[in-house]
Design goal:
Butyryl-Coa Dehydrogenase, subunit A, domain 1, alpha+beta, 398 residues, 4-stranded antiparallel beta sheet, globular, Butyryl-CoA Dehydrogenase, subunit A, domain 2, Butyryl-CoA Dehydrogenase, subunit A, domain 3, 3 domains
Length: 398
Amino acid sequence: MDFRFTGQEEAFRREVDDFIQRELPANWTEETLYWPGGYGTIPDFEEINPATEIFRRKLAEKGWLAISWPEEYGGAGRTHIEQAIFHERISYYRATGPDIGTLISGPAIMRFGSDEMKREWLPRIARGEIRFWLAYSEPNAGSDLASIKTSAVEDGDDLVINGQKTWSSGAHTSDYAWMAVMMDPDAPARKGISLVIVDNKSEGITIRPIINILGLHSFNEVFFDDVRVPQRNIVGEKNQGWYYLMVALDFERLVVAIGGMRRTLEELIQYVKGTSRNGQALSCDPLIQDKLAELAIEIEVADMFFWQTAWMLDRGLLPNIEASVLKLATTELSWKLANTAMEVMGPYAQLERGSKWAPLGGRVCTGYLDCISALVGAGTSEIQRNIIALRGLGLPWS
């Protein structure tokens, strides 16, 4: 396994880097509050920023929203390693880029959807014309997705959907729901679930904001009252949604902000070098040196997991266990980055954006609050450890 870039890959990395620096809105990287791994500070989940939307359209024109997709579907036809290079650079600059549609819905449609569904949805997703939100969690179904109650009943050529979804990130800024519904409540566990695409403009949908701990509108609760959806919007086969969900979750777990974590560590290092306490630079404190060295080690480990999954995908391997390892390592790292920054910076880290004394533009304060969401989204850390133990190590259910 050799993760060194080929000449083509290195050239592509330089091209992406140059493009981002040239096209990203001025001072975006320094001013955005996004914390790597968090769900509550993702810019597009709060509102659609016109400047970053222009940036996204330029990415779409180059086929970079769907880098590893076949060209026939609007992608760039590049390798998964090149896709990983792109994601690493995008996250390093905290830039907006591929979303739920290009990272989760599109790959799942390519794998499980009919030819008609591929023709209808994939080109529009690749061009960035439509946005998706994940309609999985419900008030009584989070980690145990098999417990969903939102129902879909067949009525002629339609489905009639009733129920509620919650913690619906970005539902208010999206066009369609990528939705798990129960079509056969009498089926054995996990056998009656289907995946369906639901238009947000459908009659009977009510979206209510949930303001997160940061005071931002990233989450929502969404209600479905007799919402009619064409049966052709069912992804793949009826009642096979649980299997599709597990594969789609693996896609989500592969999308990590490894570049953003490296950037944040670099900023922490610059901070301790340029900040003195009691007449001595913080960088001279052996305890702080140890904390930052530990972060550097864990980032290198996570980085290797990141490239391993891309390497596997290019060889036709499905990184199921590896996706959970990568997700667990990086989201725990998001938490450690925030907590280490709090310890190193002391009370200054609690200052919000707007204070002239707030280090890193107030990003540490929001990151400390947001990093908890990283441990929950796309499957909690406990769920990832269960997957690694059961599927990876072959250990029995307790």
